[in-house]
Amino acid sequence: MAGRLNSPIWRHDAFVLRRLQTAVQAVVATLSSLGILGKNARVVDFGCGDAPYKSLFDTSCLEYLRCDLEGNDLADVHFKENEQLPLKSHSADCVVSFQVLEHVWEVQDYLAECKRVLRPDGRLVLSTHGVWLYHPHPGDYRRWTGDGLRRELELAGFEVVEVRPVVGPLAWTTQFRSLAYHHLFSRLGGLGRAMSAVVCILMYARMWVEDKVTPASIRDTNASVYLLVAKPGEK
Is pTM, for the whole model, over 0.70? Predict the structure, then answer.
């Protein structure tokens, strides 16, 4: 998904992307205050894509290593089927994985590799969908509840430190309408794109209000996206 960082409000999915960016920035600040991130830290991005959040870590690490499937020329390291990454065990202070887990078939193998690469006192920062439309890149296999995602990480040997819900149910129902209008208007050329921009701005404002009035207890368990922070368990 191109343009995730600082998305303009006329973009069809800007509200979710902006809220996720804010959550990532807050996590970076927290990990920096704890000394997990810092001028000597190594961050490894699993499934980097175009590494949209790299700049948020630039002042909080020495090295940001991008990992992805073969074919992504931006990646520093490529995944190969049934092989570990060519990275030493316990060599990363932080592993990040943004909007990748729903596209992974062997989830436990993926999380096991995250854990192998992490230092014992390191952190995994992972986001994935609670509720979203089907979007294969190339596959799209899962959605999680907050409890389900937490349990998935615990099965992989992680201790979950924090789960941040991003966008509650009132707002994400409006988000889906915004996506539908965007795809409809995009078929109409330049005029359609202008109409889409206007509608998306209106929908953005509506989502802002809807998320404000949604109780935290409802948003916590019905989020569009979950951003999770975990550390390797003692076992």
Answer: yes
